[in-house]
Amino acid sequence: MASRRSTSTGYRARATTDGPLEPPGGKETVRTTWGEKARGIAPSRAGARPRGLLVGVYRPRSARPDERAEALDAVYASWGDEASLDELDRLADSAGIQVAGRVTQRLRTPHPRTYVNEGKAQEVATLAEEMGCELLIVDDEMSPQQQRGLEACCQGRQRVIDRTVLILDIFAQRARTREAAVQVELAQLTYQLPRLARSWTHLERLGGGIGTRGPGETQIETDRRQIRVVIKRLEQELEAIRTRRQVQRAARQTSWTCASLVGYTNAGKSTLLNRLAGAEVHAEDRLFATLDPTTRRWGVGENVDVLLTDTVGFIHKLPTSLVAAFRATLEEVSAADVLIHVIDAAHPEALAQAEVALAEVAALGAADRPLVTALNKVDLLKTDEDRARLSTLHDALPGSVDVSGQTGQGLDALAQRVRLAVRSVRRQRGAAAAQARGDLGD
Ligand SMILES: Nc1nc2c(ncn2[C@@H]2O[C@H](COP(=O)(O)OP(=O)(O)OP(=O)(O)O)[C@@H](O)[C@H]2O)c(=O)[nH]1
Ligand SMILES: [Mg+2]
């Protein structure tokens, strides 16, 4: 894993290989217990990748949790049983964990105390021990109670983390700018705040709670207060960033039509921005390569120019804390005049990924925006299965254009669709402006 990176708040925003993270607040913090609790995905043996066991619950369609919006609930139901764990496997790998295996259970709803049911939790703990795993990795955002319950089954031999911790860890690894770092820190602290009591449970176990509760509670309250102070400071900083972005956007939108590339992580958004608008955004075969928005002028042809923005991608079960913290960045999507939805047509779960992205766009309040769909990576489609998937995508998303950001195939057709959308937006704006002038004249 990469080395530590400090932010100006003094809090080291990412997991490390060599011990606990520093708490936020820098010098202001005298002593807290939460450095231990905030520890990322550090291996217990120096230098070795920690081994993890994946744990997932498959739910029947009607019993999926409502994570943020109703729409997302329905979308998650379309994920195949193994697809979510395949993705968790990739997330774990990106976070520097060696995945030793996976355990799943079919339940109507995850168990409130142990995520899988209690018997299964014991089995999982035994298996993790036999497989030499230091981590259990749960495929949903766990409640603090579920985390405590599973950790109790492991009797302190394994740490229990969840999908959200992995995603936050990867975001922390990728954050390159102040804006991204502040947003990631805010998301991490929001996630950690309700989970602070955790580290005192080992004392409770040892002493039956007697004699530990008083000082423990006091210390936890101190930690909580300190975290709240840092959260407040980060929120204020983000509000300033957000205002600055709004001002810049308002200036752009008086004379430009703005288009945003949206889509699942790794779909090829940055590659398309580079191709279409001559940008040099880092594009790579890894999850969340891009966190910060980049905007470039794109000549769409026939004297139509737009400002094209590439930004952070979406993922299945995107943590609520992250969406809230990335508000300033995600407003680049919700404020766009036209959206270009990029789909990795070569991915086996392309349609399920597209549904997640569309649901996230809707949750951002941008469902009414003109949308051009680009079925990307068609250069990789070779087999009958690939062709069948492409045809399913066309049936589900009529009007989509086949493209390849890599070879340039289909980009003229994409530009033509965007041109039509831009002209329609401009006509509507012109009509609205004329109407406003007419109203004033009356
Ligand atoms: N073969 C092929 N590979 C592509 C194509 N477009 C993108 N890729 C590859 O797919 C990977 C992801 O591309 P990115 O452009 O980084 O994807 P992204 O949507 O910006 O991803 P995030 O920033 O993580 O959200 C990279 O390895 C690209 O080289 C394509 O049309 N064909
Ligand atoms: Mg990108």
Can you describe what's shown?
It is built from 15 helices and ten strands. It is α/β, with parallel strands linked by helices and 442 residues long. It has two domains: 27-226, GTPase HflX, N-terminal domain (Rossmann fold, 3-Layer(aba) Sandwich); 256-441, 3-Layer(aba) Sandwich (Rossmann fold). Helix 14 (384-396) links the parallel strand 9 (371-376) and strand 10 (401-402). Helix 9 (213-255) runs parallel beside helix 12. The termini are far apart. Residues 1-40, 62-69 and 198-214 have low confidence and may be disordered. Bound molecules: guanosine-5'-triphosphate (GTP) and magnesium ion. Residues 263, 265-271, 283-285, 287-290, 313, 376-377, 379-380, 404-406 line the site of guanosine-5'-triphosphate.
What does this entry show, briefly?
Helices cover 47% and strands 14% of the residues. It has 442 residues and is an alpha/beta fold.
